[in-house]
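Instructor's aside before we start: the two examples that follow are unrelated to each other. I chose them only because their records fit on one page, so don't look for a connection. First example below.
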Amino acid sequence: MPRHLSKSRFKLALECVTKLYYTGKREEYADQNLSDPFLEALAKGGFQVGELAKYYFSDNPVEEGITIETLDPDVALRLTHEKLSQPGRVVIAEGAFLYDNLFIRADLIVKEGTEIQLYEVKAKSVGADIVDDESFLNRGGKKVSTNWEPYLYDLAFQKYVMKNSEWGAQFNISAHLLLVNKEAVATVEGLNQQFKIIKEDKRYKVVSPPGLSRADLGNEILRPINCDTVIDRIWNAFDVPTDFETGIQFQPFIERIKTLYIQDQRHYSSIGSKCKNCQFRNDVQGSNLKSGFHECWKQQTQLSDELLRDNLVTEIWGGLSGAGSPVDKLLENGIHKLSDAREEILLPKKAKSEGSKSGLTPHARRMEQINRVKNGMEESYFDKAGLKQEMDGWVFPIHMVDFETSMVALPFHHGAKPYQGVAFQFSHHMIHADGTVEHKGQFLANQTGIFPNYDFARALKRELQNDNGTIFRYHNHENTYLNLIASQLESDVNAPEDKEALIAFIRSITRRKNGQDYETGKREMVDLYDLVLRFYYSPLAKGSNSIKKILPAIIKDSSYLREKYGTAGVYGMDLPVKSLNFHDHIWINPEKGMDPYKTLPSVFEGYDRNHLDELVKDFDELGDGGAALTAYNYLQFSEVPDEQRQSIADALLRYCELDTLAMVMLVEGWREMIPMDILN
């Protein structure tokens, strides 16, 4: 089949037209995106939702054979033609359509009479605030809201191809998004267990129990929204949200990018904050794979290869895309390197109230980063006196906790709603007043079809209720999920007998919004991430504050940590630093780049944890939980042999243990770096 612009390529062009040139060239250009759609679907729930949707239009889609399975585009086009030519009502999943070198595979289409209904199925939730497709527009109704742009333009492209294909003259075509209704309530038990994922002939497919029918799935939890009105505006009224060309409309945009892609031409889009997470970047010197990111920047900045290697403005903290992005502010002023940044460009328009908190403001932190680059300083910023004041309020023994969680689209239980958060794992380290460290406890619920949240809260309560020591988390995740579990307990008509005790425990260690104010527990968890932002900056971590980047930074700064955790006979089950999962592990190895995470094998063979963690960037600012979430969902929704199930569970326990040990190391490193005259 000749080179055609597919809907996935169209969506890529919306992100950045230059990416069209790099995509599909894995032998030539580095591509950091996962090539395995199975793992991505596990993380985001797309496989199960897509299969459930079929049952809303076909009583038994497997027996009726509505899915066009072939990957061959020509065969798919022929089979689609044959099915649509049949009389009466026809339902097709993965139907193929072609128009003028534009090619799509539609999730679901229903032909009835002179009408064809197109459905794009998404594992994205929608609430009562979305009344109709005009709710997807911004307040002025002059463009699609940013959050909905990828979905609406994808659907508009599909309808455009179908409308102009051979079927457009024969049928009226209407387009719909089919989304997860977060207000719906499951009326059957174990809905998500009805759709298992298996690997067959190097492909993944969803299998359901024999004879499963529409009646077995209970109340509909997917909601169709007709989008014809908005699509008409996308086609005829709105400018395409692209920096490819100002004011370009839908059809000219398609024609331009189609020509670029088919002829394999490269068009350089303007560089910006969007480049920060470019998947076509390769920083490995000597690699055989080219870096599309660096080729773009070299062409538009005229910087040498050497200058492009480090300290670009994309590295600045808080440099993600959006209004007022520091990256875009600097680029608008012709500044490409942090060494050329000027403070007046980055000054906030209006100073935000910092309340009673001491330490660096966001702007001051950015300037610490910039000034270290300007002055060639490798030394970290560390406000010893400021952090010491915080430490004075800590109560020993202190506790480090880290959670691993999932939000599955299809509910576990009767009476549950979609995307009911699941907390399936935690790790707990303690530091005693005498400096002794131990991995005190852990929890992992890896059984299939079990809602673990109440057992999770119960186990955490047992871990933390024995003293009044200070509890630490890293960022907001743990606080968010504990409040979620408390809400689940409050609304559950079948809540356990210890409901009130569990809620009281959760409220005692969390903070929550109550109207315009916050209610804070007497033993509210301390956020180590917040302490990093206010008191510590390492040039090694650059603009990242993920614990995975901060850990190598504190190790570089602390000879105490390098000596303690770089030695055998220290960390293990019967060693001075007690572990629950390691016998004698050396965490710091110069050959691994001083990064303890690199001393552990992958959770999934062949996939680096960093790549898997990127899967949750959409809903996790730090993106630290993708590997665990994907592994848990794999155990839940796949047919996994017992030996592999145990291997994955063991890997999850080790990784989560390191997450809380990383918090321990951070605090230990800080304490050793504070001079005795300040410490005392």
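Example two begins here.
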Amino acid sequence: MTAVTRQSAEASTAWVRCPRCAGLQYGKRLRRSLGVCPDCGHHGRLDAGERIRQLTDQGSFTPLPVRITANDVLRFTDSRRYRDRLDQARARTGLDDAVLAGFGRIGGIELGLAVMDFGFMGGSLGAAVGELITRTAEGCLERRCPLVLVTASGGARMQEGAIALLQMAKVSQALVAMREARLLTVSVVTDPTYGGVAASFATNCDVVVAEQGCRMGFAGPRVIEQTIRQTLPPDFQTAQFLLAHGQVDEMVHRQELRDWLSRLLVAVTGSARPSTGAGTDPGIADPAALAEAGPWDIVRAARDPQRPTTLDYLRWVFDSFVELHGDRLHADCPAIVAGLANLNGSPVAVIGHQKGHTTKELVARRFGMPAPEGYRKALRVMRLAARLGLPIISFIDTPGAYPGPDAEEGGQSVAIAENILAMFELPTPVVTVVTGEGGSGGALALAVADRVLMFEHSTYSVISPEGCSAILWGDSGSAPDAAEALRITARDLLELGLIDGVIPEKQPVAEPLTMADDLHAALTAALAGLAGRDGAELMRERRRRFRRFGLTAVEVTPAEPIAVDRP
């Protein structure tokens, strides 16, 4: 009996009592629900075979063509010999060790798959597990396909000592090779994932998705409570906790996991449908072709809550969008949306400020004002896009960075500065579109691009008109005068040579679907104009582009030597 054919203990039992709600569930019904309690949603533990059947296309999975088994190199004995524990685990699970690895398909896309089985010595990481996962990654390199790791582990295997410890690094070096080859790696965290697995390949893949109900951490909650003598919160180390604290990209219900992975793979590899063009580029490069309008009227139009948001454009312009959350350090910021999608069937990364249309949405999204974790999330996704060789599209619509004390404590200035610097090092095309407000450094942190476009009724400025009025006029009442003096409209910026084109709008808030169609055409044209350039050329031209800004605003003349007296 192998793990691929072995049913989980829960599903093969006539009646099963849910450990959470204590309700009795018929075994076949529980199996149909993939081990999820129909009453309370508790996600029961699956073995590796059940997991592979859940995720892969029917009949597509083929195990690695080798058997790898652990040896008792240390001759380890506690209450029992390590060799005897291995024999018992093999007999109980039908596995050679705590992972089942091979190749299969999800949604028709080939990938390498390594699934850990907690039933084999607590899914502990030893030499055989490390070797199997590493060989799967090496097979992905040969086949040029993504790698998905499904984790379920208590940590490194103590009976193998430092050999087990170093498997954390062994698997990680294989993931580095995947990065260098621009191949996607995905970690699916299931319950439980702790210790050395959590501190290596469970969290250092490109994308980390947590199955609903899972727990993950370096140290277990009992160890933590005993060490620090404090009671931990009820949701500590749960999937919800991990998502709220920015440590995973998404939390997904088991019944939706296969579809989520399929959409992610399509977002990265591109759709099978033929690429469709967008027709004529609607962008305007001549300022004289734009009608003159009052700057203050444009400010009000740019702030209109009925203007399409980043999420609106993602629905109307792109396919297969998969949102990625969190900065992997501290939190997730609702004011920035980031993820992977398809444009005309080709994969791209999309990042943008998100406001909303209602007061409730605006408050929840902090009026589109990002905290430091928002900028770190954006940069993480941009760097992922660069590793995968995907173009980056950013949408700007923010009054500015969030000015709260917690943002300052979190390093707001550092986060913005890091984004501006790092975007000059991205060896992939970057296109920015100002869709509403472009406020100060909060906007620039997503706008160091090869091409910058603006909608006709949008603004881009060093400061808000109200802020400028308060500082220079002494009160905010002169904001309309400040708006005119700052020259913040798309027409002004095009005339100053600071942007590349303007997407016209027929009225202050144009028909949203018309705006989406024009945006689609403009993005298609901009990316086509950047196609074929290698990374070094893109970075070189991007730096030259920004080097030119401001030259028309200065006068350079030879200077007399300045004598500096020394004490």
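The chain has three domains: 9-42, 45-268, 282-540.
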